[in-house]
Amino acid sequence: MRSAKRFPSFAWLTLIVNVFVVLWGAVVRATGSGAGCGAHWPTCDGEIVPGLQSSAQWIEYTHRLSSGLALLMVVVMLVWAFLAYAEGHPVRKGAVAAMFFMILESLVGAALVLFGWVEADDSMARVYIMGVHLTNTLLLLGALFLTSFWASGGKMFDFRDQGMIGRLYGVGVLIAIILVVTGAIIALGDSLFLQIGLTPDQSPVVAGILAIRIYHPLTSILVGVYWILLARYAILARPSPRVKRAARMLIWVILLTWAVGFINNWLHAPVTMQVLHLLFADLFWLGIVWLTAEALAEDAPRADRVSWTNVFRA
Questions:
Q1: pLDDT score for 52
Q2: Which residues contact residue 62 at a Cβ distance below 8 angstroms, ignoring those fewer than 6 apart?
Q3: Domain ranges of the chain
Q4: Which band of pLDDT confidence, cut at 50, 70 and 90, is reported for residue 165?
């Protein structure tokens, strides 16, 4: 349909804007600026356009504005999808899912402010809501990616009737979500300890997060290796240029994510590196969504048999 001609570009732009919002949210957390607008939402200190007299206000207000823009773009994308695509088209389904997760994202963001789960708050409630927040964020970005992917000509995919590769990808998606979410919780501990100044003696929550922090690099290596092997398996089991391109891109992202994570730890998690680390974590997740969509697509060619020996040799 003619009205769908420019939709893919707008959908990709919506994804990019939402990634920016996620990264700026990390700046808000890492700098302790979550209460920059006081206990007010959606206004800032009770005003639509506040005076912005502190850096915390600037940072938090910028996050509010960019979040509002992202919400508006998802609304436009949803309406556009229903106007431009026929009933049952995957783009409609992706846009509906994106709108659902965007609403949840807004509600969680409001809860963080209204319940005071910001700045130096070290309650377990903040840890739990952080896990919910990041899980929903990943699902939102995934829905936005798939909407853009389908609008750009990508095919629907399904984990069922895929044999072993479908089960392996299902497990891989789950452990990737767990890895990124636990990484966000560890980043919260870094902010409370390094930026806010809470010590393990002062905060049992900080003590607990720092105690498990040492396991995150090992877990990221194991999950990364798992996905590298899956990517190499996909190249052989689903022999197509699209799968090969997505698989190779994911492998490079994993390697770069490891490097950024090492530098982040080495420099003791400065704000810039925390944001960069989150960027690569998001790219890792989007790479997984991309490869999964390509490898499990309904039109993906299937090899008769793939030996794991060949996977290690490939």
A1: 65
A2: 24
A3: 1-152, 155-314
A4: confident
pTM > 0.85: yes or no: yes
Give me the helices (H) in the chain, please.
Answer: 7-30, 55-84, 90-114, 124-151, 164-190, 204-213, 215-237, 241-266, 271-295, 308-313
Three-class secondary structure of residue 47 per DSSP:
strand
**Which pairs from 2-9 meet CB under 8 Å and 24+ separation?**
3/80, 3/83, 3/84, 4/84, 4/85, 4/91, 4/151, 7/77, 7/80, 7/81, 7/84, 7/91, 7/151, 8/148, 8/151, 8/152
131: Cβ–Cβ under 8 A, 6 or more apart, which residues?
181, 184, 185
Give how far Cα 205 sits from Cα of 143, 200, 264, 307, Å: 32, 8, 21, 46
Query: 266: Cβ–Cβ under 8 A, 6 or more apart, which residues?
Result: none
Q: How much is the pLDDT for 1?
A: 47
Shortest CA distance to 252 belongs to which of 274, 276, 280, 278? 280
